[in-house]
Design goal:
The complex is a heterodimer of chains A (420) and B (248).
Chain A (H helix, E strand, L loop, with lengths): L3 H7 L8 E4 L4 H11 L4 E5 L15 E5 H9 L3 H4 L4 E3 L1 E8 L3 E10 L9 E5 H14 L3 E5 L3 E7 L2 E6 L4 E4 L1 E4 L6 H5 L4 E17 L6 E7 L2 E8 L3 E9 H9 L2 H12 L6 E17 L3 E2 L2 E3 L5 E2 L7 H22 L6 H29 L4 H16 L1 H11 L16
Helix pairs in contact in A: 2-5, 2-9, 9-10
Chain B lengths: L12 H11 L7 H22 L13 E5 L7 H6 L3 E6 L4 H11 L5 E4 L2 H6 L4 E7 L8 H11 E12 L3 H14 L16 H11 L2 E11 L4 E5 L6 E7 L3
Parallel strand pairs in B: 1-2, 1-4, 2-3, 4-5
Antiparallel strand pairs in B: 5-8, 6-7, 6-8
Classes of the chains: A alpha+beta (420), B alpha/beta (248).
Chain lengths: 420, 248
């Protein structure tokens, strides 16, 4: 060749790593483990310092992990470290209510005894899941974590994608995966627009200690300002997700514990006896934000980066882990075929697999929030009759139970507890 | 030749890059090949893995295997084989394809030996391969038997040939010529001549006559509702693929 340097200047033959995952929350590490197991070299870029996410005061959320999500965690080898701090979800009770009057008479009950697979899912607190994922990622020979680093720029040229970090370091890969949440910088830098809206609601989240045992029952009371979910934690504790208008939530959050509880009690009811606050209190503003597409050339979006939803159905993390399972499977099969796995036509298969499911979920959560978060007497009668009707029909009820357990649809192998 | 020492004239690189981009555009001129490629690769990789006892979940599972891709075009099969660790020779009888494939392999960081030559010429030169990929070629050659005999000669004892083509019947005429060339315009008109299509039985006989043993045949089926290809053991009515081996 006349100019032996031309090729070398233009393109590098190899990349620093196969896949860069931006975001060290829950989906990022889970995806890193699934991909590492499949033989990919993965680098996770986490804006936080190592260990920060496992601290008790970091995140107060508890997750209702669908059975399918728990199977994925088992398949990627982290469930063992989470199990002892999890609570099986044996029953879900949904009712319409008003503060002061407690749950209404029309209750919809989903009992795991109606399906063969076991509990519908498990309640796990964020800190335990974060610690288990961090430990597994640390131990994985193919996964590297860069903590305390943020991405400031990304570029795609030919078959190489490059990220530039705040420290000035650059990292080349075949694919960048954005697991960087609702305000995904990965999506923004790739020119992917988002749509959605602010709900004007904020979720108040904390752990509650109560007098009586919860027997593995999760409750969802629909109140006019928004739903109150009471989700069982180990011991006589439950995690609450209490949705109010953003103004009211700010007022309640500012109260001291005694006054906070005074506001909570009429909504919570007395079925679990005396209640008290166990741990820190948190607030999460609620919005819907969906990426107009989940992929670009050498870029894929996972979890809230692709679709941030209302927590009304408790499906945020479950949907994210479904993305993890689907993307890991598509990329693994492409790698085994010898395909260039970062190419858009490979990534389109992931988008095609997930988008319909995600859109269905967006519509369902939108509909549920509009139907239930109001005090319109006509809608109130309609939803009470609806709840009662669904409850009276075992076939439909079982369908909802399987849906809640995440057992419906075209499931990625990892969510069936199988290896890819 | 390594990817770093291409013989492509630098003044022509831009032109070849543009042509390579065309070859590799999944929505462009070669869209039908791109749509079919995952099932072709599924079949090829699983046959090679079975024949040579390789595990596709290993890193570089085809390391140590020498593979010939006949009619390599832009390298749609050669690149995956190289990525799986094989030592790949891509041959094409169309000279213009060679620099295009070279430029793209370089962009992909792959080392592939692309040559402007034919199976017959490689056989005369005494080249030997573990695997010969003979995909969508046999329906374009003038003398299928002498062509397949050359392929047989190119195989080492115990070697594997994967050969795909198009069946000859009224349905394949409607699908492959009327549908793909005239209605969907996936392929330029005149790409295929229907009377050169070969039935699975005829191909089986030709393979046997060439000195290979047919070990498997499957259909590649396009589902217009799912808009995707799949492998079928029953439906060989249009596109189909065979695997055959040379006695060890």
């Amino acid at each position: 060749m006349d100019n032996p340097d031309a090729g070398a200047q233009k393109r590098s033959m190899t990349t620093d790593t196969d896949i860069v995952i931006v975001g060290g929350g829950l989906n990022g590490p889970a995806l890193a483990l699934a991909l590492g197991d499949a033989g990919f070299d993965v680098t996770v870029i986490d804006a936080l310092q190592a260990g920060a996410r496992g601290e008790d005061a970091f995140d107060g959320r508890g997750y209702a992990l669908a059975l399918a999500s728990q199977r994925l965690l088992k398949a990627i080898g982290v469930w063992g470290a989470v199990a002892e701090n999890s609570t099986p979800l044996l029953e879900i009770r949904i009712s319409d209510g008003k503060p002061g009057t407690g749950p209404g008479p029309f209750v919809l009950e989903f009992d795991h005894a109606e399906i063969d697979e076991g509990p519908m899912g498990y309640m796990v607190e964020d800190r335990f899941l974060s610690r288990a994922l961090a430990g597994a990622v640390e131990a994985h020979p193919r996964v590297t974590v860069l903590s305390g680093e943020t991405v400031v720029a990304q570029a795609v040229e030919g078959s190489t994608a490059t990220v530039t970090l705040a420290s000035g370091r650059t990292l080349s890969a075949r694919l960048i995966v954005g697991c960087d949440g609702r305000a995904s910088g990965t999506a923004r830098r790739a020119g992917i627009d988002r749509w959605g809206h602010d709900y004007g609601q904020t979720a108040l989240v904390c752990a509650i200690a109560h007098e009586h045992p919860h027997h593995g029952v999760a409750h969802q009371f629909f109140m006019p300002p928004g739903p109150l979910a009471i989700l069982p934690l180990p011991g006589n504790r439950s995690s609450i997700v209490w949705t109010e208008t953003t103004e009211d939530a700010a007022r309640v959050h500012a109260l001291d514990e005694a006054l906070y509880l005074d506001h909570l009690r009429p909504r919570f009811g007395d079925f679990l006896g005396d209640i008290s606050i166990a741990g820190e209190r948190f607030t999460y503003p609620l919005n819907l934000t969906v990426a107009e597409r989940f992929v670009d050339d050498r870029v894929a979006l996972v979890g809230d980066a692709a679709h941030g939803m209302h927590p009304i159905a408790g499906q945020g993390l479950n949907a994210g882990l479904k993305d993890v399972g689907a993307l890991a499977e598509i990329l693994t099969l492409a790698k085994r075929r010898g395909e260039d796995f970062g190419r858009r036509d490979v990534l389109d298969r992931y988008q095609q697999w997930r988008r319909f499911d995600v859109m269905q979920m967006v519509l369902a959560t939108e509909g549920a929030n509009r139907l239930f978060s109001n005090d319109n007497p006509i809608l109130r009668v309609a939803r009470d009759v609806g709840l009662g009707l669904i409850n009276a029909m075992p076939g439909i009820r079982r369908g909802f139970i399987r849906e809640a357990a995440g057992l419906t649809g075209d499931l990625p192998k990892l969510l069936e507890g199988r290896q890819i | 030749m390594s990817a770093g020492q291409t013989t492509v004239d630098p003044s022509e690189v831009a032109k070849f890059e543009a042509m390579a981009a065309e070859w590799w555009d999944p929505t462009g001129k070669f869209k039908p090949l791109h749509m079919m490629n995952p099932v072709r690769l599924d079949y090829i990789t699983s046959q090679i893995a079975a024949e040579f006892g390789r595990d596709l979940s290993d890193d570089k599972p085809f390391a140590g295997l020498r593979i010939l891709d006949i009619g390599c075009g832009g390298g749609l099969l050669s690149e995956p084989m190289a990525r799986l660790g094989a030592d790949v020779v891509g041959a094409d009888a169309a000279e213009r394809n060679i620099p295009v494939a070279q430029v793209h392999a370089e962009q992909s960081g792959l080392d592939i030996d692309y040559r402007f030559t034919t199976a017959e010429a490689l056989a005369v030169a005494g080249e030997q391969f573990d695997v010969v990929l003979n995909m969508e070629v046999v329906e374009h050659v003038a003398d299928p038997l002498s062509y397949l005999t050359a392929c047989q000669q190119l195989l080492k004892p115990g070697g594997l040939m994967v050969c795909s083509t198009i069946n000859r019947n009224p349905k394949s005429f409607m699908v492959a010529i009327v549908g793909a060339e005239h209605v969907m315009r996936w392929l330029p008109k005149g790409t295929h001549e229907w009377d050169k299509f070969i039935t699975p039985d005829e191909l089986g006989n030709l393979i046997t006559e060439s000195g290979l043993r047919l070990v498997d045949k499957q259909g590649f089926v396009f589902n217009p509702i799912l808009w995707s290809w799949s492998i079928s053991s029953r439906d060989l009515s249009v596109n189909y693929v065979t695997a055959s081996v040379k006695a060890a």
